[in-house]
Amino acid sequence: MIQREIAVGRTMSKRGAEVILLLGFFGIGLTLGLALLKAPSVSINAFESPDAQRIFYWHVPAAWAAFIAFGFLFVGSAMWFFKRSNLGWRMHVAGAEAGLATGLMTVWSGMVWGAAEWGVPWDWTDVRLNTFGLLTFLSLFLVLGRQSQPDGVETRDTFSTFGLYGFVLVPVTYVATRLWQIRHPGPVVGGGDGGSLAGEMAVILFIGAISFTIFIIGHILMSMRITSLEQRLERIQKSMDKV
Predict the structure, then answer these.
(1) Interatomic CA distance for residues 164 and 102, integer angstroms
(2) Phi-psi category of 123—alpha, beta or left, where left has phi over 0 and alpha has psi -120 to 50?
(3) Most buried residue, 61, 130, 152, 213, by CB count within 10 Å?
(4) According to the model, what pLDDT value does residue 56 have?
(5) Where are the domains of the chain?
């Protein structure tokens, strides 16, 4: 009976990542629904395309979650590079995959908004757009590179180095619009008096930020578990090859 309860407890703990991920998906869907149906209209004088502005409630939280993922990638890269921690490597892998997922969400939603608001989906002269694009491309490189290269110390060192140096783009991306505001608006959070929101707009944005945070946590936990299983399978395969 006790062993059965222990087994059930382990199963429930293993399912925690799935539950968190599903809650995140639900919250993201709720955010999009509220943005389309509940969010107040904005002044037509402030935006060329007021309806397209509603994607803001998806775009900003996705970018927030991407920064969390890039931070996780940096910590994992440092743990592997300096400590040779297998946990750090799993964090590196999870951060890269989560950064790619949320980075693509941010880029896609930003391009949709930009096409409607600016008339072009991308502006190559805008610093913030390009630095965030480079961060997303870095995640893509790390994910595809790990899948195409055999696992080993040298491979991990190479990719963790990219993870360490690539993190420099995170603060540059955040402050870019304060220094070189071309098309992209300034920071919504921590942007001063001009970056504040009130009323239903702030509530929906808060729901979106919480939802994407939950999503990124679930995504990272799932990815770390999968990487751990891959490593275990590889060890078993090597043991069988020696027999």
Answers:
(1) 19
(2) beta
(3) 61
(4) 87
(5) 63-242
Output the CA–CA distances (angstroms, integers) from residue 234 to 36, 95, 108, 223, 231, in the order listed.
47, 21, 36, 16, 5
pLDDT of residue 198: 59
What CA–CA distance (Å, rounded) separates 104 from 6?
Answer: 40
The residue type found at 134 is L
Residue 159 is classified by DSSP as H
Q: Rounded distance, CA 49 to CA 113, Å?
A: 9
With tokens 């502006």, the residue in question is: 123
Q: What is the dihedral of CA 185, 205, 115, 139, to 10 degrees?
A: 90
In the predicted model, is pLDDT for residue 156 greater than 70?
Answer: yes
User: Which helix or strand (DSSP H or E) is residue 198 part of?
Assistant: none
Q: Residue range 56-84: average pLDDT?
A: 94
Q: Give the ranges where the chain is alpha helix by DSSP (H).
A: 2-14, 16-37, 56-83, 86-117, 127-148, 153-166, 169-179, 200-242
Q: What is the DSSP string of 51-62?
A: GGGGGHHHHHHH
- What residues contact 52, with CB distance under 8 A and at least 6 apart? 112, 113, 116, 117
